[in-house]
User: Fold this.
Amino acid sequence: MKTGYNGLAVPGPTNMPFQIRQAMEVALQDHRAPDFPDFTLPLLDGLKDIFMTRTGRVFIYPCSGTGGWEAAITNTLSEGDTVLASIFGQFSLLWVDLCRRFGLDVDAIDVEWGKGVPLAEYRRRLAADTDHQIKAVLVTHNETATGVTSDVAGVRKILDELNHPALLFVDGVSSVASIDFRMDEWGVDVIVSGSQKGFMMPTGLAVIGVSQKAINMGPQAGLPRCYFDFQDMIKTNDQGYFPYTPAATLLHGLRASVDMLKEEGLQNVFARHHRLASGVRAAAEAWGLRICAKGPEWHSDTVTAILVPDGFDANDVIRTAYHSYNLSLGAGLNKVAGKVFRIGHLGWLNEIMVLQSLGGVELAMRDVGIPFEPGAGVGAAVRHFSDDADAFRTAAE
Ligand SMILES: *Cc1c(COP(=O)(O)O)cnc(C)c1O
Assistant:
């Protein structure tokens, strides 16, 4: 029998705060009731603040993040349209795969896993595309498989400098509500997020932000769509309703999530994630282990993928952590399977919870025989959190 809390250190689902659990402890309700819009309209509006948009719209679909990808492309593009993308991890790969299954012509740049969106390559291809065949540019803001964050603003800058009209689609499933993201300022046309990561909720909602430009593509977008059609959403959302039965229970959790994020303040949420992530990176360094992200410009503040030394299998660390210490770590996916384990550090989290994960990693690594000084990583994180405390308190004020 396992006692104590389950350690959840995967990059989604993340830890769910008590307030969100409690908010969902409600009787099921009539989603066509006359007062339902009193609940839904402010929620849709509040989510705009999380995406940092005033000019865009927010749609909520009862599905996981993958459905958000599908909504983005089917509402805006036609079969055979050219899309520019890059692959540097399992999630950026799957998004490209989805586009190809819908018959899009994807120019997918293969990038070394551990790096992110190749800005120079994007610029070169967009500059060469003088007759504007590229209809959309895809950016995976935070590649969860490798712990790599990319420069979305940099892609917008390139599009603007070249005066290129392509739509800008961003996968923000593991960045929104954890890492700085600005839909309007960065001119993002569709931002895709999901409930089970930065929103600290159970899986089950894709929450997406859509620009007016993307919505205007509807009439000419030839890809088949039904469930994800923005127009159906707009017609009913404007009145505070949904075209089909909404996941109302989850929406109550989402309300609590938005309230918590706003109460902490988004800038403070970002600063907290940076502080906790820096502690994890300090631990990896103290263990003498490399992380998958190839340089500081790629460091992710929501997930760190840590490479085990040659001759070891990262899955042994993950299995031992789970079976012996009731701690879930993220596995290496695809190209990095067996090479990395991932520590998720996003959502409802504090220093103590991060130290718990780091301590669990140390136990598991020691059990499988990876050489390091016990306490080195935990100690480095303690030192980091302690030394950084004053700066952080100032930032939080
Ligand atoms: C989790 C994740 C997804 C997939 O979302 P699902 O909710 O599993 O469908 C997509 N992209 C990124 C970057 C993710 O982290």
